[in-house]
Amino acid sequence: MAADExxxxxxxxxxxxxxxxxxxxxxxxxxxLIARQLEKLGVDVIEAGFPVASDGDFxxxxxxxxxxxxxxxxxxxxxxxxxxxxxxxxxxxxARPRIHLFISSSDIHLKHQLKKSRVxxxxxxxxxxxxxxxxxxxxxxxxxxxxxxxREFLRDILEAALAAGATTINVADTVGYAVPDExxxxxxxxxxxxxxxxxxxxxxxxxxxxxxxxxxxLAALRNGARQVKCTINGIGERAGNAALEEVVMALQTRKDxxxxxxxxxxxxxxxxxxxxxxxxxxxxxxxxxxxxANAFAHESGIHQDGLIKEKTxxxxxxxxxxxxxxxxxxxxxxxxxxAIKERLKKLGYALTAQELDRITLLFKARADREKRxxxxxxxxxxxxxxxxxxxxxxxxxxxxxxxxT
Length: 405
Ligand code: MN
Prior knowledge:
Bound molecules: manganese (II) ion
Oligomer: single chain
CATH topology of the largest domain: TIM Barrel
Low-confidence stretches: none
Largest sheet: 8 strands, parallel, barrel
Number of strands: 10
CATH superfamily of the largest domain: Aldolase class I
CATH class of the largest domain: Alpha Beta
Strand order of the largest sheet: 1-2-3-4-5-6-7-8
Shape: elongated
């Protein structure tokens, strides 16, 4: 067990599993840009790629291993000699290299994909870890499809990997099948029953097929896992991986509950999210937790009123804590008088109570008719009213004159 039992190792696989998102293929130069940003963000391990998969991936891993000196660099390999050798060839110049090898452990995969017996797979896993350990003492072993694996066999194969010299053991919910309580219990079982586990780090890798990747990762951390694998914006194979920003901000926002911490400099989360989205071409859904365009936007009039009075009424974390400049009060039919008043104030207008009532009424009527309503619409309403009511017209004229000069 690590000296600091509260410290979680954040293993980022944006450049490997994340790149498995359809259409997300990146050049070595693009991967290096993201790797630099991940180093700035403070991740503990960057998984740079799958060197045997293609020449481009080999080059990416080698480039990142040479250039990024402050973060551990990992490369993935199947549990076969050519993969392991190729991974090491790409990694060897890294300041702190890690070979990450994997093999399936579930009967479904053994029977239909590997066409091997449990005994054969266990022996292969052992031999692969031994081989990787001839290159480096930093070897991670992953049981693929671990969550659909017989518990006793999973225990046996993990023990074999540890006996062969693995320093990190990763339990992969490769197909996003686990649910939090069950997954937490599996991790607790492995922590207790895998001999040698106390000398290594237990890691988890969760997929989001049922929208549970973050919840499953957190359940695992509650039960003794001390490394979490994630990607920026949750990109990855199929429905993606646990999102780094979600896991990290859950731990930070609810440290009263988890009593765990990471080395992530959270104020760089948003810029990292934007960079990954721009380079991969995968947009971030507006309602995405932490980094979505609406994550700190408030539309309900009741919420807006509370927020103007005191931010903690409706915000559990500040936008600044993840590097977003400010929360946003959106304008919509749910907006209240208080939000409209604030917005007008920001634009330079101080209306009387009566004028504000009238503008709010007109604004809501328009918002009822239209899906999107903007500041421009608010200004148009103000101008139309100004033509009708002398007082507001004066205000608008004064403002127009001011901005004209
Ligand atoms: Mn995966």
